[in-house]
Design a protein that fits this description.
Helix content: 10-25%
Shape: globular
Order of helices and strands: EEEEEEHEEEEEEHH
Number of helices: 3
Distance between the termini: 43 Å
Strand content: 25-35%
Structural class: alpha+beta
Number of strands: 12
Strand order of the largest sheet: 2-3-12-5-8-9-10
Length: 181
């Protein structure tokens, strides 16, 4: 496995047809109104590794984040959509109700739980347990954007020069959303 510092973190090339990838697959946008948009991190997450996400949503909703031992290259989303949504993500989800724009640090614990630090949330520390997953085999992060217009950016470093902020200042975010009435 590549050294942690050399790992290029982005989203996997396997993603749902309701998702549009931009910024070299570091930003996912839910660009269609129907169905949940499912996508994955490009590499298995490593125990103790910190992954940073920045997201935007147009209204209060649930951003779903989960884990799977299935290699995304082996997943056929058109056939396995319901299985992923039911087995991998339910009931584990992060409900970010208070923020339209949110920032989080995610890390995988040795016991297979995901630890979240979300500074913008009133209860800013969350742990999601996945008792049926083993950290002895590769584990991928799974993301679901349920609503049109949701936007998620991923990085292995703290996101300071965000593609979202650059896109927002250039009007790209609003322009992308206008493409899909």
């Amino acid at each position: 496995m590549a050294d942690r510092e050399q790992r290029e973190i982005r989203f996997h090339h396997v993603f749902d047809s309701t998702i549009m990838m931009i910024e070299k697959c570091t930003v996912a946008v839910k660009d269609k109104r129907s169905g949940d948009g499912i996508f994955f991190m490009n590499l298995p997450i490593v125990v103790g590794e910190k992954i940073f996400i920045l997201g935007a949503k147009l209204k209060n909703c649930i951003i779903k984040i989960g884990l799977t031992n299935k290699d995304p290259k082996q997943i056929k989303l058109e056939d396995e959509r319901e299985g992923i949504l039911n087995e991998v993500l339910q009931p584990n989800c992060l409900h970010l109700k208070d923020s339209i724009i949110f920032y989080a640090c995610i890390s995988l614990n040795q016991n297979g739980s995901l630890e979240f630090t979300v500074p913008s949330c009133k209860c800013h520390h969350h742990i999601l347990n996945f008792p049926n997953l083993s950290t002895h085999v590769p584990i991928w992060l799974v993301f679901v954007l349920p609503e049109f217009g949701h936007f998620l950016e991923i990085s292995k470093e703290e996101i300071t020069n965000s593609a979202f902020k650059r896109s927002q200042s250039a009007g790209l975010f609003e322009n992308v959303l206008r493409l899909f009435p």
